[in-house]
Amino acid sequence: MKLAILLHGVGAFVPHDYLLYLLAYCLLVLTGFGANIAHHALLRFIAKPCALGLKVQANGPQKAQPNAILEKVFTAITKHPDEKRLEGLSKQLDWDVRSIQRWFRQRRNQEKPSTLTKFCESM
């Protein structure tokens, strides 16, 4: 009733349109879909401009160079290969062990969110 008074004056009833909008809004919020939309809107229109205004870096970690064999080991077997596996990969790819260790370190860091992403999601 107070909504009707505010929108249309004393003695007016709330039109059915407003009730339908209210019902749709409640369904969105109850299903979580509305919260998801609100979260993304907050990140995009409030948190990210604030972060960029504070000069938070948007760049992420250095990308590992594409290598199908190492990627398959990384995704299917292990993200932290032991010395024995490193030696085998070194012989298979004709790379030195240090280069393979660097590739795995860069690939693990690639999965971490950037500083900008962490800042935005902490707001």
UniProtKB/TrEMBL annotation:
Under Pfam families, the record lists: Homeodomain
Q: How the protein sits in the membrane?
A: Multi-pass membrane protein
Q: Which UniProt keywords apply?
A: DNA-binding, Homeobox, Lipid biosynthesis, Lipid metabolism, Membrane, Nucleus, Transmembrane, Transmembrane helix
| Pathway in which the depicted protein is active | Lipid metabolism; sphingolipid metabolism; Sphingolipid metabolism
All copies of the Homeobox domain together span: 70-114
Its name, as the record gives it, is Homeobox domain-containing protein
User: What reactions does this protein catalyze?
Assistant: sphinganine + octadecanoyl-CoA = N-(octadecanoyl)-sphinganine + CoA + H(+)
Looking up Gene3D superfamilies in the UniProt record yields: Homeodomain-like
Recall the GO molecular function terms of this protein's record: DNA binding; sphingosine N-acyltransferase activity
Q: What's one GO BP annotation on this UniProt entry? A: ceramide biosynthetic process
Q: Where are the transmembrane segments?
A: 18-38
What GO terms fall under cellular component here? endoplasmic reticulum membrane; nucleus
User: Which locations, inside or outside the cell, does it occupy?
Assistant: Endomembrane system; Endoplasmic reticulum membrane; Nucleus
Give the DNA-binding residue ranges: 72-115
